[in-house]
Design a protein that fits this description.
- Keywords: ATP-binding, Nucleotide-binding, Transport.
- Belongs to the ABC transporter superfamily.
- This is Peptide/nickel transport system ATP-binding protein.
- With about 325 residues, the protein is α/β, with parallel strands linked by helices.
- It has a domain of about 200 residues: Rossmann fold, CATH 3.40.50.
- It contains 10 helices and 9 strands.
- It has a 6-stranded mixed β-sheet with strand order 5-6-7-3-8-9, sandwiched between helices. It has a 3-stranded antiparallel β-sheet with strand order 2-1-4, covered by helices on one side.
- Strand 8 and strand 9 form a beta hairpin.
- About 40% of the residues are buried.
Length: about 325
């Protein structure tokens, strides 16, 4: 772990099932979450990004590797995509906030039992009148604010934010993103921000990591990865992102075939079956079919897992894309 990391993931693997039904959803991922900063984690459905987030949060057992930050593991909170599914419909907002607050050791609590409800709601722009109400009485945006308040009540050092705006309309999404930035600055939080939306990731992140079929393919500062991508998959994601003023139907297709079954990934590079820069178009690049590239890591010595990385001086993504 680097000295500026709030949390490190080292050679992490997560597996589901047993025997013939077992498959590895995350394979050998190494990442540093920047202290009081944001690591954006992107990839298509089935990439393993949410599995990685749940493992970091402690919801899933670790098959191999480590998650840690030195002698003391930071407190980690979670905010999920669908707030309605994460609240007990029979529990008032106040009770939900108190449950989170009660997880903090008594000697470390910043607020008293009487203070915590109204204070954390104020931190997310809601009044104390919400305390006695139930989840069904709130809009999706309001309930996501309450979900953030509940996470804050547990005094986290790190927040895992898994697709927290994808179920919201654009206007509410922008409001929640502003709130998250304000909360991060006030409390000095570190975010693991998981999203399929490259524009949102570009807006929120300091560092970006790109996952595909359980593997980390590229990682680096947001400007480097989204403006000068080195991995063909990252470039394909950027090329497929809708541009301002362009109908969704006109966006380029991201890749040349369907994502492979993560339970049976292809041999060699996991992306070669879809890659426009690999052996499908360049027969002399057979190594892609047979050898897995060294894993990308959170350091500049190995930022991309590719046998034939793109040149850093290649044409940047189109103006108006997520990297702009």
């Amino acid at each position: 772990m680097t000295t500026s990391a709030a949390l490190s993931v080292e050679d992490l693997s997560i597996a589901y099932g047993q025997g013939r039904n077992r498959f590895v959803a995350v394979r050998g991922v190494t990442l540093d979450l920047p202290l009081r900063g944001t690591l954006g984690l992107v990839g298509e459905s089935g990439s393993g990004k949410s599995t990685l987030g749940r493992a970091v949060a402690g919801f899933l057992p670790v098959h191999a590797g480590t998650i840690g930050s030195g002698p003391e593991r930071p407190r980690i909170g979670v905010v999920l995509q669908n707030p309605r599914a994460s609240f007990n419909p029979r529990m008032t907002v106040h009770r939900a906030l108190l449950e989170a607050w009660e997880t903090v050791p008594a000697a470390e609590r910043r607020l008293s039992r009487d203070e915590v409800g109204a204070q954390v709601l104020a931190d997310v722009g809601l009044g104390a009148d919400a305390l006695g109400r139930f989840p069904h009485e709130f809009s999706g945006g309001q309930l996501q604010r309450i979900a953030i308040a509940r996470a804050l009540a547990a005094q986290p050092d790190v927040l895992v934010l898994d697709e927290v705006t994808s179920a919201l309309d654009v206007g509410v999404q922008a409001t929640i993103l502003r709130l998250l930035r304000r909360v991060q600055e006030r409390f000095g939080l570190t975010y693991l921000f998981i999203s399929h939306d490259l524009a949102v990731v570009a807006q929120m992140s300091d560092v970006v990591a790109v996952m595909y079929v359980g593997r980390l393919l590229e990682v680096g500062p947001v400007a480097d990865v989204l403006q000068r991508p080195r991995h063909p998959y990252t470039r394909a994601l950027l090329d497929s992102a809708p541009r301002l003023g362009e109908p969704l139907a006109n966006a380029a297709t991201p890749v040349e075939a369907d994502i492979p079954d993560p339970r049976r990934p292809p041999p060699g590079c996991p992306y070669w079956t879809r890659c426009a820069h690999g052996p499908l178009r360049h027969p002399d690049r057979e190594i892609c079919r047979t050898e897995v590239p060294p894993a990308a890591r959170s350091d500049r010595d190995a930022p991309v897992a590719c046998h034939f990385p793109l040149r850093p001086d290649a044409d940047p993504p189109h103006e108006g894309e997520a990297a702009s």
